[in-house]
Amino acid sequence: MDFSYAALRRFPDVEAPNLQAWDATDELLVQRALAAGIDGAAITVIGDEYGAITLALTAAGLHGIRVHQDLATGRRALARNASELGIAGFSSHELDESLLSGARLVLLQLPKALAELEEIADAVARWAAPDVTLIAGGRVKHMTVTQNEVIGRSFGVVQAQRAERKSRLIMATESREVPVRPPYPQHSRHAEFDLELVAHGGAFAANRIDIGTRVLLDVLGGRHPRAAGRDGVTVVDLGCGTGALAAFFAMRHPEARITATDRSAAAVQSARATMAANGLEDRVVVTHDDAASELPDASADLILLNPPFHLGASVHSGAATRLFEAAARVLRPGGELLTVFNSSLAYRPELTRLIGPTEQVHRTSKFTVTSSVKR
After folding, report:
1. CA dihedral 302, 69, 109, 266 (to 10 degrees)
2. Domains and their CATH numbers in the chain
């Protein structure tokens, strides 16, 4: 097969010399799919980060492949790479029945979270063809025996293959009978914040409130941001996750116009369900977007942000920087960015450079909350 993986780009995701748009796992999954001799219309690809699997198989003549990518950046990268390479003949879907109905081969780049893997494995067993084969792959250093056990909840036979080029595949067959109710989304009540959270498997922190978000919620509960209380104030929960910050603010500031946005489809589905669970579905708009790219310049009075510091399995400051840059673009002059981060990351100088004057408003043993005012 004449396909150049090196021609693929991560854009619009962060690009750097130590970050590439494919790995050996992608190549092993492609090789195994080509050897299976299954029609493209019966193949589903899940977790194809930048399109390496889908585009390589389509370029080999397997048309009709269905693909699901959680991240908006991955979806845009796939579309861009397909356009640049002149490849067509696949379709994108959410993690639902349309993605998996009739699928006889499912290729999966293993996710980091076991909860996400559990939801995916259940979906495959629930909606794919009865004789479906699930082939999941990952880098050996990130794989655990527990992943096999999670897949085994939905499949009767789970076999790890021999490692090749520091990657390994797992073959799963004989799908089990699934429970009437899917294992996700999950609900939890957080009485201290008067919040009900709903989370799909791929959502960060699941249905818990992570430590950083908890610290920022404490600040919001005891401090009035500069813009709060003003009629028509425009608020953005940037990288909203399950929507805890947006929901908490909306319940306390009924005058606010709030948008919650995240690049993860699982997070967006979770946040929408969280808004519905708290009676806020008509008050908070939730969007699937990359770094607020669909929001107008200088349109927000207040942005709430708990930025990530990982890109996939790599620790990389670029993830937070892209969100700081997005906040700088979206904030109105005089608007405020409230950010929480691990104190060891020392983001304050960068926030001052990109946004404007930045001061510490709260600090715990692990986390710092800062207020940055757009110059």
Report:
1. 50
2. 5-175 (3.40.50.150), 186-373 (3.40.50.150)
